[in-house]
Amino acid sequence: MAVSISENDGDDDFAESHEINVTPFIDVMLVLLIIFMVAAPLSTVDLPIDLPTSSSTPQKKPDKPTYLSIKPDLTLAIGENAVKRTDLINSLDAMPDMGRDKYLFLRADRVVPYGELMGVMELLRAGGYTKVKLVTLEGVPGAPAAPAEPAKP
């Protein structure tokens, strides 16, 4: 509680001041700002996928995109959760925010064979998920795409 001292008071009691002390409020806001600044970059998908590059103009992505990833060992993951190929459509159907009318973002590692990528896309098409967008890294326009590493024997 804040008090003020004035000369015109004839008694020894201090009068109450009705001002808000904003210092604790500012401290709390700064702590929350730091927490959000640290937590925001951590909320992305963290699967190590080596994506190919593209020189096309990037498109705006939705607020909560659903990523389907094909890892180098040809396993599938929805977000960061591993899923079997046989359970792929059932897992997508079980997601509350995923519908057949929403876009599904497909990420495939650079070493994944083209046939495997097309096989996953065929599974999605057969399950009714026809709105699929392929994810690549942004490249420099006019520059050739980086060559894939040769397969090791």
Chain-wise SSE layout:
Layout: E1 3-4, E2 15-16, H1 23-39, E3 53-54, E4 66-70, E5 76-78, E6 81-83, H2 88-94, E7 104-108, H3 114-126, E8 132-134, E9 137-138
Parallel strand pairs: 3-9, 4-7, 7-8
Antiparallel strand pairs: 1-2, 4-5, 5-6
Describe, in plain words, how this protein is organized in 3D.
The chain has helices at 23-39, 88-94, 114-126, and strands spanning 3-4, 15-16, 53-54, 66-70, 76-78, 81-83, 104-108, 132-134, 137-138. The strands form three sheets. It has a five-stranded mixed beta sheet with strand order 6-5-4-7-8, with helices on one face. It has a two-stranded antiparallel ribbon with strand order 1-2. It is an alpha/beta fold and 153 residues long. It contains three helices and nine strands, in the order ββαββββαβαββ.
Question: What features would you highlight for this structure?
Answer:
153 residues; single chain; 9 strands; alpha/beta; five-stranded mixed β-sheet; two-stranded antiparallel sheet
